Amino acid sequence: MNQKLKKIKMIILDVDGVLTDAGLMIGYNGFEYMKFNVQDGAGIVLAQKIGYRFAMITGRNTAIISRRAKMLHIKDVYQNKLYKMDSYKKILKKYKLKDEHICYIGDDILDLPILMRVGFSAAPQDAVPDVKKRVDYVAKRLGGCGAVREIIDIILDGAGVKDQFVKDIMKGYKAGKPA
User: Fold this and answer.
1) Cα(57)–Cα(106) distance, integer angstroms
2) DSSP state of 62
């Protein structure tokens, strides 16, 4: 598995059920609320600091997702994408990447076409069974409850960059790009 992880350059995320717990609160006034996990966000920001790219592809379309992506400095956000493969192919072309360079994290059957194609596929613990039996890694944590951070840590560990990054943080050093 470490050989797969060493090739990863970009992590693409589904949103509902991955970055959130798949719950959606809608008030009587029509306001929507989604809850995101701070540890997931911290993991994304830290991985970006050592050179990993991130993108989101989601079937939903809401300003909440755009706002969260902006907070995390994720520029590639594809919303309202029931069929996600076209967006995935655009990302590959834009960054001149191959399937083996991508980790995709998804939780439902709409994610399967990409999950079955990428270099490293992962899902939260509460993903649907059809996804869990087909991915490279099933997180111990649930979607929206730190699963993304867990998977990022697995990637950084497997690529051999996490220990040095932690040492750099401990020294107060500003980390550079992965080797």
Assistant:
1) 10
2) -
